[in-house]
Design a protein that fits this description.
- The chain is an alpha/beta fold.
- The chain folds into 2 domains: 5-43 and 52-144, Rossmann fold; 156-277, HUPs (Rossmann fold), CATH 3.40.50.620.
- It is built from 9 helices and 14 strands.
- The chain has helices at residues 16-30, 54-84, 97-105, 130-136, 165-173, 175-180, 203-211, 228-239, 261-269; strands at residues 5-9, 33-40, 88-94, 110-114, 141-144, 156-160, 183-189, 193-194, 197-198, 216-221, 243-247, 250-253, 256-259, 274-277.
- Helix 1 packs across helix 2 (54-84) and helix 8 packs across helix 9 (261-269).
């Protein structure tokens, strides 16, 4: 079973075109329907305590800005669709960015977003939270790095393996990508010792994926002087991976995302796309 519906967040930020282009390439290679979702944040107007009548003017200005942004993004979407020869569905909604994406993700096989922007930016945030989407949407999320360049996702894949439910879910959600990949490496960073001997890392999951037709190799890396996340990123660079597949280890409580060290490290520093599921 492949991806038939891909949802990509479409905004007016600097790296939107790269994210949209990556999603279009995926849709083309999987024969999937692609939906570009643009979200107008709910209006923000300060309370007019002095009855100045300024609030309606601010609201009108916000609507004008939102319309201009939407038109700009729509043109990018149309241009990318024409370049790849595919029809991209345009969808525009108003609301909380994370909430709208989560609601629309229910009708998609894969969600494509970018790394979160600078949290110190004083402007109202317009980036979705990849962590919140991974933990709340119930769908796999592809997180595209915020850097220039084109991403051809899924030729050489690194699976950051850990024998837990999150990693199992990520691997199986990524099967359509893994089956198309030229090579897949399943990696466990700093594996534990068992009875004085190092385990044969990823042997069983590698055999399982091989039965699905995945060209798989099992490997391990032991970098006790560095974190697991840093070791995974270093290994991805060493083998020339163009995609990391991993579980999103963490939990959502009172709308706050709490991640473990590996997930936080990779989400904050990855230089290639990361496929995550929870």
């Amino acid at each position: 079973m492949g991806y038939k519906d891909i949802l990509v967040y479409a905004d007016s930020t600097e790296y939107a075109a790269i994210r949209l282009d990556t999603a279009a390439r995926l849709a083309l290679s999987h024969g999937a329907h692609l939906t570009a979702l643009h979200i107008d944040p709910a209006p923000y107007v300060q309370v007019d305590l002095m009855s100045t009548g300024v609030a309606p003017q601010i609201r009108q200005w916000q609507k004008t800005v939102q319309k201009e942004r939407a038109e700009k993004v729509r043109k990018i979407v149309d241009d990318i669709g024409a370049r790849h020869g595919i029809n991209i569905e345009w969808r525009r909604q108003e609301g909380s960015i994370n909430d709208v994406i989560v609601s629309q993700a229910a009708y998609a096989d894969l969600v494509v977003v970018s790394q979160a922007g600078n949290p110190l930016d004083l402007e109202r945030p317009i980036d979705p939270s990849p962590g919140m989407l991974v933990l709340s949407s119930g769908r796999p999320v592809l997180v595209v790095p915020n850097r220039a360049g084109e991403f051809q996702v899924g030729n050489n894949v690194l699976i950051a393996w850990k024998p837990c439910a999150e990693a199992v879910r990520a691997v199986h959600d990524a099967l359509p990508l893994l089956k198309q990949a030229r090579s897949v490496t399943i990696l466990e960073a700093n594996p534990e010792m068992e009875a004085g001997h190092r385990r044969l890392v990823g042997a069983e999951i590698a055999k399982h994926l091989a039965r699905h037709g995945v060209n798989i190799t099992a490997a391990s890396v032991n970098e006790r002087h560095s974190s697991d996340g840093a070791a995974i990123l270093a290994q991805a660079t060493e083998i020339g991976a163009d995609l990391i597949v991993m579980g999103g280890y963490g939990h959502s409580r009172l709308r706050e995302v709490v991640f473990g060290g590996v997930t936080s490290r990779i989400l904050g520093h990855h230089h290639i796309p990361v496929f995550m599921a929870h």
